[in-house]
Amino acid sequence: MNRKIGIAIDIGTTTVAAATVTEKGEILREAACANSGSAFGADVMSRIKAASEGGAQRIRACMCRDITGLITALIADQPIPGESADLFRELPIVLAGNTTMLHLLNGYDCTGLGQYPYTPVSLAREERRASELFPGIPSSIGDARVIELPGISAFVGADIVAGLFATDALRIPETQTTLFLDLGTNGEMALIRSDPDASGAKRISVCATAAGPVFEGAGIREGMRGEKGAIEEVVLIPASPGDTGDHSVTSRCRTIDNASAAGICGSGVLEAVSELARLHLIDQNGLLAEPWFSDGFPLARRTDDTEIRLYQEDIRAVQLAKAAIRAGMETLPLACGIPAKQIDTVLVAGAFGKALPFSRLSPLGLFTPTLLSRCRAVGNTSLAGAAGVAKALLAGPDREKAAYDLLDRIISCTQEIPLAGRQDFEACYLGMMGF
């Protein structure tokens, strides 16, 4: 029996992820790679600056190569037992990503994204043929439909719309207030609650903070994406009484797939810093104790006997990211007239290799103790949302229309709360830098 499939792609600032999905919503394969546009800057503002200074075509070429490579890898040789050669007939490719990434991919002028009042060229859903967007795409899928999901604003893009779609944001019970938090480079979040002026309707308030790429293992000296060999769990064990010397603390690490350690991913970085804080091996200002301040704290050894270490600048990157996220989580509810303690559930999205052990992150201060117990990891919801739309497209025109209508409804009940220039946000940001 033949099956139609679609491809879902999440174009993140740091990582590009892709998956093939069937008309039943089954994920057949997944693939990911670093966004090679990172060579032009780690965050969106750096990328916008590079594009405006003549690098736009080179950045676009990098992104097209990344995406084409993932698509080619996903469909290569069609190694699915029992499937015929027309498995990829009527192939839809659904793209989600932040507004800057989609602008760069489309070749749009990004100037308006980098300066007040931060005006995008387009936030609309767009559709074109694969061969029009991706030079070098395999000719067998050159006529595939490419659908780019719509966005909300310059800094809250289609990735968040896809995440709200994937988590059924409009179907959250009326009595619940939910915070959707995307732990990525741009640190977007959405507060979802019932609209008191419209029975059964939702009100969604969104904002973005500049968290940086640390949650994806980038910007860390020994950092890597969440793939085989990445340290994802760190436990520090103090030596027994009377034991002294530079090695008075033992590090026990677990890697993805239990492979030989190759580096450390986002979840591993958070756990490592949290453990250092728990044992007071970093002070309240985030400074590593001696003897590790200069040479870094040893976590594990590679097969070539070189050490994977966490360095002082890595801790500083975590401080900046967690302060931005925590300040956003404090400020957004207050701007909406809702104390943060009234949030019932925190949906934590991000391309982590496993569900974060939220209880072990308490010393980090990323969440308040109250919200820490209400966190639930939901994975890469941008990719999941794109896959959900691809599934709908495969099901026919009626389901396609229903998916588009839902996306439009999500956007129509959403309002952005700008944080830049808010004194309460800035004060909270500075106050949350320490441990």
Explain this structure.
By secondary structure, this protein is of the alpha/beta class. The protein has helices at residues 44-75, 99-106, 130-133, 158-166, 266-278, 292-295, 312-335, 369-372, 381-394, 397-412, 423-431; strands at residues 5-11, 15-22, 27-34, 92-97, 126-129, 145-148, 178-182, 188-194, 202-208, 230-238, 249-255, 263-264, 297-301, 307-310, 345-349, 375-379, 414-416. The protein has 3 domains: 5-159, Domain of unknown function (DUF4445) (Nucleotidyltransferase, domain 5); 162-213 and 317-380 and 416-431, Nucleotidyltransferase, domain 5 (2-Layer Sandwich); 222-310, no CATH class. It is 31% helix and 22% strand. The longest helix has 32 residues, at 44-75. The protein has 11 helices and 17 strands. Mean pLDDT is 91; it is low at 79-85 and 242-246. The termini are far apart.
Give the key terms.
3 domains; globular; alpha/beta; six-stranded mixed sheet; Nucleotidyltransferase, domain 5; 435 residues
Instruction: Please report the distance between the alpha carbons of the first and last residues.
Output: 58 Å
CATH fold node name of the largest domain: Nucleotidyltransferase, domain 5
Radius of gyration: 22 Å
Fourth-tier CATH superfamily name of the largest domain: Domain of unknown function (DUF4445)
Shape: globular
Q: Give helix and strand order, one letter per element, not per position.
A: EEEHEHEHEHEEEEEEHHEEHEHEHHEH
Structural class: alpha/beta
The overall strand count is 17
Spans of at least 5 consecutive residues whose pLDDT stays below 50 are 79-85, 242-246
Strand fraction: 15-25%
Helical fraction equals 25-40%
Largest sheet descriptor: 6 strands, mixed
- Report the top-level CATH class of the largest domain: Alpha Beta
Query: What's the rounded overall pLDDT mean?
Result: 91
Strand order of the largest sheet: 3-2-1-4-6-5
Domain count, please report it: 3
Annotated CATH architecture of the largest domain: 2-Layer Sandwich
- The number of helical elements comes to 11
